[in-house]
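Worked Example 4.2. Read the sequence first, then its structure tokens.
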Amino acid sequence: MSAGINTYKIDLRELYFTLFEQFGFGQVAGQAPFDAWGPDEAKAVLEQTYRFAKDVLGPLNASGDREGCRVENGSVITPKGFKDAWKGVYEQGFKSISASPDHGGQGGPMMLSVLVEEILSGANSAFNMYPGLAYGAAELVAECGTPEQKKLYVERMLNGTWGGTMCLTEPQAGSDVGAAKSTARKNADGTYNIRGTKIFISGGDHDLAENVIHLVLARIEGAVPGTKGLSLFIVPKIRVKPDGSLQGPNDVTLGSIEHKMGIRASATCVLNFGENDGCVGELVGGIENVGMSQMFKMMNGARIAVGIQGLALASTAYFNALEYAKDRKQGAPAHKWKDPTAPRAAIIEHADVRRMLLEMKSHVEGIRALLVKLAMHTDKAHQLAGKDDTQAAYHRGQVELLTPLVKSYGSDQSFRLCAQAIQVFGGAGYCQDYPVEQYTRDSKIFSIYEGTNHIQAMDLVGRKMGQAGGAHFQQFMSDVGSFIEAHREHKIYGEAVKQLAAAQEGLMASAMAILGWSQDPAKMTLIPLSANRFLNMMSEVAVGWLLLDAAVIAERVGEKATGDEKAFYEGKRWSALWYARNVLPNVEQAARMMALEDTSSVDISTQAFGAI
């Protein structure tokens, strides 16, 4: 594939259906605090974003991957074209859509901004990480910072003047954040001297903005061990005066950048703070020892962003595979496969290729629905706060519950579906002439960073399901149950809905098993052994439900449609039926496997794994 050629593909009609027809954007937009937004404005934004993706970001995806980042004179140089793309992203307002007007944002619904992010990430996932991290860091300061910190940092980070990062991981600690050794020593003026090393810092250094604002977890001297003793600090790469002007280096040095399998145009950095005892930071909000709770506000957003990345690459991989399958001719149709004179058929006519494509289509549509549903809950919680606290709490609870699903299922399926796109292309897909090999390499990191998917699974079963006395999970199951009861006898989807009911029963049985294990010290090890499986089961129930919900809507509306619109709505039917018939039965089987309470992997001795 030649550099400079856009290969990003998406069907905006799919986004419009999910946003407007399935999740009722019009019921959220046009009401405070989203008064200025409506369907017409949302469509215009999505169309504008897609043009930018095709014209600017898409053509830089392969070239950025080939060129990668490099270090010159202790600083990161990003690939050619990235500086102009950075400028364009901010000039066109793509990163301020859901930001607060108090900080120069447009105050739009999250339902819209997640789809904008899907388009930007799908076109160039590595590039989009730079402004994405800056946005997340700015939002954290906006929520947790002092009034002075908000005034100094937030708007500059939201408008692209400054970048931003989150700095948690250390060489000796990895995901065990509580083992961090970075220190903070208080100065007489209330600032802190920061010292330590952070690794795997995405966007930790770059030449896109005039400054990079790091949010750094460190332990104030004398603080207790573990995560409870960590505080969060604002640490600029270049020191900032109270008026926002820059005043010289802040003893933040680039140790190195990683050479990676994918997202090569995203600089993954080793950063050293205070090697010369001259690194100064500000305590976020002026509050000590609450660094983890503050950082989780950014981490939760980052985890949703990873789910968006996964969806984005799986989606464009699917549409590239679909286009190739329609064009590539190979082999005779099945009913003429013994006839050597039969004309060659497009490979989309072959049954197994159609199976792979429908599997990709159904998963992409279902994960997008799950993502927009999470965003809808976020928007409604925002709207109802202070007006209907009970309903606001319900929506916030669903956001908490769905976040690990979006991150884990979206990222796991992304890598698998991108690899399946290679299979549709055959040998051509394994070559760099087509984009799917890069999509596959890029997507592998999604299940690892921002908390590995096992961390997400343990968060689900160990924390999220028990929140509010288990009410959030019970409400989720009630929502699924209400759909089942309403459509169990549907003339087209009745049997599929019954399959969803069986899957829901298996999920509930497994949830009760986990509850029992948590109360039995002899069986607690079964929880980490089963957590990933349970998260996948719950994700499949959620996606199966939302695909069937979309199909019921499409069936009703599609009766009067013609032409391309009729075919579009028909696609919703087959996505739902395929998933119900081929994925939902896995939930029942997984529930049976959990009931076996297998502990083989902990019972085996370490020596028995092999001598090496």
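Now turn to a second chain, presented in exactly the same format:
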Amino acid sequence: MPRPVWRRTGTRSLHSLAPLMLLAAIASLTLTGCPDEGVVCTSGLTVCGDTCVDLGGDTANCGACGNACGAGQVCQEGACGCRPGTESCGGACVSTASDVAHCGACGNACASGQVCESGTCREGCSAGTTRCGDSCLDLSADPLNCGACGNVCPDVQSCHAGRCAYDVVTACYTNGQLVGIQAETDALGPRRQFGAGVQSLAAWDGFVLAADATNSKLLQAAGGELGTVVEEDSLGSVSASPNEMLVDPPYVYVVDSVNNTLQVLKREGAAQGGGLGLRTVTQIHLGPSTSPQAVAKWGSTLYIPLFGTAGSDFASGNAVARVDVSNPEQPRKLDTISLMGIDRKSFDGGTVLPLPYSATATDAGVYVALTNLNPYNDYRPNGPGMLARIDPADGGVSAIDLGAEACLNAGYVEGVGDQLVVACLGEARLDGSNGNRADAVRATGLVLVKDDVPVASYALSPGCEPGTSGCRVAVAGRFAVAGNAVYLGDTNAGRVFVVEVRDGQLVERRGYSTPQARGPALEACPVDPRRPVSNAIDLTALP
């Protein structure tokens, strides 16, 4: 029996499109900030005076311009309240882990001369903590005393090695914003306008690196100051498409899928604005029409998936380039490993190409996510989402079938502990009458792989009935990992779903698939009524 296929309602299918084409399709929709002649804010931001602010998360303008939250409070969803990790005791927001008057519980005061440490009254501070008043604290991790006594981290930031920063950062491509998330609580910080078209993210030493395709710049922001550029470095051509970055101190590798290049930047000390102090040391061309999509490192070799281009009939793609970086300032392309020899399990015996889009390196080898599409039929999946496993010792390639029912168009892969998580972009349908927004999708979500075998899957649900008024379907994209939690971006409606990897299962924490979820998906990148798509294009976790 032939497999059912999705039919087009207007033009062509969205995430059966090559991901690069999806980006190009929405690039023209991006707003670039506030023009000089009157302030115009992108979705989710409101004009207060002459500034665009997020009334849902700005403590100085919470719910309304000028409505400032009180001491110790943060703004969440437009209402002031106690910051995560504190609670209201007698009308004040306190940490019962360290407050001597409320040690372990509201009203539980320690005896005279005692201190409060980890919710317990003690006679003195234990080793590794610092006394701040009558509290014993770890200044490297306490958001109320981060790096120094009394230094309170703003809004929902955490304390990372004595510096305030968000745990996870999302880039909103369509809205031109960055938004921070606190892990564990999944609380959203305020949205900040940043760059003009951030396409990929990375994190290094407390800074967020944001590759801006519109301006062809590698922008840096402190992990707690997402609206402020502290350093910018050129990405070369004005038509750059920096699809992914790899931080490998003291170097950063950037692959450009339009200019077919690998750029190498090196950290050379703090810059004048306080950034990392990067400079480009070299750039190599990976070959015409190769369209490199990602980069992973195993030993002293980079593995770079080559998607290929339609103009060259994908003859230079469907492979993985290996680049020797034993001397990163003189990288040398070794060879390419073809992916065409694996059984791609065509649904109908017709054309299906690997079209690799992501890669990650583990002790077991290098794993490459294969979209497995038919580029000659609107880039529709014509085989299950797959992984290719490359043995670095001999370059041998084997395939892992992720299962067509759970996964079509495998687009991103990353390790979580000793397992792999794969994001499946699925096969979605574009509504051409509504600005090419996806109105239906199948086989999109996550797959968990253990010892090269799929062991669990998670289906992305929009929390509404597709096709009904106001329902925006969810389409999986890239994700970031914080602890055992996967923060998964939605490229159609701008949300972030949170899924835990637990006991060999994928357990939804924020989403719509299970009643046990902690709450709905995070509205990270709001939908602009002037724009049909809101793309949470990339996420990064700060260590």
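Notes for the reader: The chain has a mean pLDDT of 89. The CA atoms of residues 177 and 193 lie 4 Å apart.
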